[in-house]
Every structure is written in structure tokens, then in C-alpha cells.
Write a structure and sequence with these properties.
Strand content: 25-35%
CATH class of one domain: Mainly Beta
Number of strands: 9
Order of helices and strands: HHEEEEEEEEEHH
Radius of gyration: 32 Å
Protein name: Lipoprotein
Distance between the termini: 120 Å
Keywords: Signal
Organism: Arthrobacter globiformis (strain ATCC 8010 / DSM 20124 / JCM 1332 / NBRC 12137 / NCIMB 8907 / NRRL B-2979 / 168)
Structural class: alpha+beta
CATH topology of one domain: Immunoglobulin-like
């Protein structure tokens, strides 16, 4: 085997190729260094909001209402991480209030509860955020939480509207286009039967 010595031009090309390869690898792997890791941040990846009030954790909280001055049902999950049963009070606009009992080290799913948590008024029109004061009676901690108001436009929430989901007759029907006239049906224009 015979090795030949590299001349100055060849060794320069090799050094540049190695440097380009190093920069390329650094560029491909460096994006993890510059961008924050998304899994290290907790956030509400849903329509609802989240908050912690003392030992109580609220998750995916929403108010489902037909309108601004109409009743609103509060849905979501309420977790109690304490060793005592607690009562959570939700106070909305214009004195609207509801209470939720949560057992020790347990949770209550408000959307599955037979005893719906309903505020007498939602406090805002669908699409808005409303201030709700949340108090838990175990440590008497309270906090004002902004909770989104949604309506029954999305079928996932229609069943939670206070008073039930809108009926099928409440959905819009087809309308005639301008210039169209109704034509009588054949049975309406038929001549009366003979002898009548």
C-alpha cells in the first residue's frame, strides 16, 4: 500500500469540507437549544381554562350559555388534593352563584354531574371571558378566574345548555332564492272527481 502526501490545496479542501459538515450538523441539532421544549410548559390545551385555588385544581372550565343575560352551566373538572372534603363556590356576574362539593383526594366532573352547576346569568356573551370568583371552604382561599363562555353552536356543548339542547325545529331551514315562485302540486290542481 502506498500513501501519498497531500499537497497544500488538498489539505485546505479537506479542512473546509470538515468545517462545512460541522456547521451543517450544528444547524440541524441546534434548533432544540434555541427553542423552548413545549412539554416543559403546562397550559390549557382545550377550550376551557385552568386554575389552582388552594388545594383545589380547576381544569377545562367553561360556561355554556345561550346568551349574555341567560343562565350558564359551568362544566369542567374540579380536583381536591386535600385530605378533607371541600365545597367550592363559584360567583359570577350580578350575584350569580353555584356550589360544588368535592370529596377528599377526589375529583368531580361537572359535565357528568347529575346536579348541574348553573349560574343564573352567564355574565357575558358567547365567545367572551368572564370573571368568576372561586372560593374553597377548606382553607378559605379565593381567586378570580377568567372563564370562557361558549354556546351550543358546537355540538359538543349543545347538550350542556341550561334547559337542554335546542330542538331540531330551531335549526335554520332552506329558503327560496329570490325570483323563485312556488308551483302548485299536481294534487292541488287536479279537477274534482266526477259526480261530486
Amino acid at each position: 500500500m502506498r500513501f501519498t502526501a497531500m499537497n497544500r490545496g488538498q489539505s485546505g479542501k479537506m479542512a473546509m469540507a470538515a468545517a462545512a459538515l460541522s456547521v451543517g450538523l450544528l444547524a440541524l441539532t441546534g434548533c432544540g437549544y434555541v427553542n423552548a421544549q413545549q412539554t416543559s410548559h403546562q397550559y390549557a390545551a382545550s377550550d376551557g381554562t385552568r386554575a389552582d385555588v388552594g388545594p383545589v385544581q380547576l381544569r377545562n372550565m367553561l360556561i355554556v350559555s345561550g346568551g349574555e343575560n341567560q343562565p350558564g352551566r359551568v362544566i369542567g373538572a374540579v380536583y381536591n388534593s386535600s385530605s378533607k372534603d371541600v365545597k367550592v363556590t363559584l360567583k359570577g356576574a350580578e350575584g350569580a352563584q353555584t356550589e360544588v362539593a368535592v370529596k377528599q383526594n377526589a375529583y368531580t366532573l361537572l359535565n357528568e354531574s347529575a346536579d348541574a352547576a348553573v349560574l343564573s346569568t352567564s355574565g357575558g356573551k358567547p365567545g367572551s371571558l368572564v370573571d368568576v370568583q372561586v372560593t374553597e371552604d377548606g382553607t378559605n382561599v379565593n381567586k378570580t378566574v377568567k372563564i370562557p363562555v361558549v354556546d351550543g353552536t358546537l355540538k359538543e356543548y349543545a347538550a350542556y345548555l341550561p334547559g337542554g339542547a335546542p330542538s331540531e325545529s330551531a335549526t335554520p331551514s332552506e329558503t327560496a332564492t329570490p325570483g323563485e315562485t312556488a308551483t302548485p302540486s299536481e294534487s292541488a290542481t287536479a279537477a274534482p272527481a266526477e259526480g261530486h
